[in-house]
Write the C-alpha cells for this entry.
Amino acid sequence: MIRCLSPALAIALPTSLLLLAACGSPPPARQAGGGQPAATLVDPAALYCAGTGGTVIPATAGGRRADLCRMPDGRTVRAADLLNSHNDL
C-alpha cells in the first residue's frame, strides 16, 4: 500500500498519526487510598451545628443520614431541625 502513496504522503501520514496519539490525555491516575473519593460531602446541618458550638452526633434513620446536635446547654436536637429553625427557606 505504501508503494502507491507519494513519498511526501508516505512520510506525513505516519508522522501525523504519531502526533495525534501524543496529543491524547493520559489515563486518570489511580488513587492510593483504595478508591476513596477525593472530596467528602459535608452535611450543611452538621456544619451549622458545629458553628453554633454544638457537638455533632452521627446518626442514621431509615437508611438516611439524620445527625443529631448536642447543644452547649445540653439539649439534643436533630441537626437539620436546628438549621431549618434558624433559616427561612
